[in-house]
Amino acid sequence: MNILSFIYLNMISRGNLRAILVGIFFFFLMSSLLFWNLSVIYQILDYKSKVSLFKISLYFHIIYYIIMFVSYHISIRLFKIVTYLFFLFLGFLINLSLGLLVVIFYGKKNLSPNINIYIHFGTGIILSIIGIYNERNIRFDKCQIYSKKMKGKLIICQVSDMHLGIVYGKKFVRKLVNKLKEEKFDILVITGDICEGDLGKIKMKEDMLEPLKEIKVPKFYVTGNHEYFSDINETLKMIKNLNIKHLSNESIIYNNQINLIGIDYENPFSNQRKKLMEIVDKNSNLINICICHVPLFKPKDLIPYNIFLFLCGHTHGAQMIPTNIYIYLKSRVLNGLYTYLNEYYVYCASGVGTSEPPMRVVSRANIGLITIIGEN
User: Fold this and answer.
1) Distance between alpha carbon 116 and the CA centroid of its chain, in Å?
2) Which of 127, 134, 202 is nearest to 163 (CA)?
3) Is a pLDDT exceeding 80 seen at residue 47?
């Protein structure tokens, strides 16, 4: 089956190794979850199928490849719809597997087969409905913080992780801009992953971003990891044409009070920390604010850099179970505002888009709205 995946993905991705590997991973994940769920259902019901589970999984893949191949060559719009449905099904399988864990560790011994099946599918359906609702309904996450250096106040709007291209397009950006118009703010910062990455003919196009021109405040941008899954130079050209300032490992003085620093995505993360240390003026009387895609710091870690506020994204607020556990253990920063001594702040936006599947079970799509108020 993975050989079929490789041949198929190589055809539509034009040899893009990242697309091939990611595609094989998701196909393998989906087939494994499907196989596991079916096998436990058969055990619960004591069902003896005339067709092996392996054959069922194989038939599923063959039918799927035929549908994807035909749709890709008939219509890109049709292919995007099929791809979206595939990712939805993958999300449902992940949620279904959580219900399966309840059945395995509790239900099989204590409940009847029918109740076990209800728990199994009920969990998957309920979590999927919650996930789709949270993904589709973008909200503002409003925070207020105080600074002795600030005169008056400054409102920063943060948009992160749009992931335009495969699932999200111009209609999504229009919806986002209409939401942004509901609030007043002084600057807009875009903290990376503006695009999802290329998959053959499917990629972010400049017209998708055009509604952002309607936001009449200074706009700043840094790259995320997904920009490097496509033509980064083409993406940066689009950003420039939209009069969005790309802060590529540099800083800019705003309103004679703010030293706004932008750090582009780079792996390993330690390189980003080194560049920040080179750029930031640790003895400045200005308020140092850094925008970056990845949550490089916990609030306490900002002290040596004299960074008052660090704005980031990348985590999607963990998005799904069990990825929330992994992300928390890795960064300790998942979503929202974190502070140390009310002097150093990290704000991690859960973002407005998703990277497959298009569901948010443990977070909501949000736009950060951070108000910095002077204490005097």
Assistant:
1) 33
2) 202
3) no
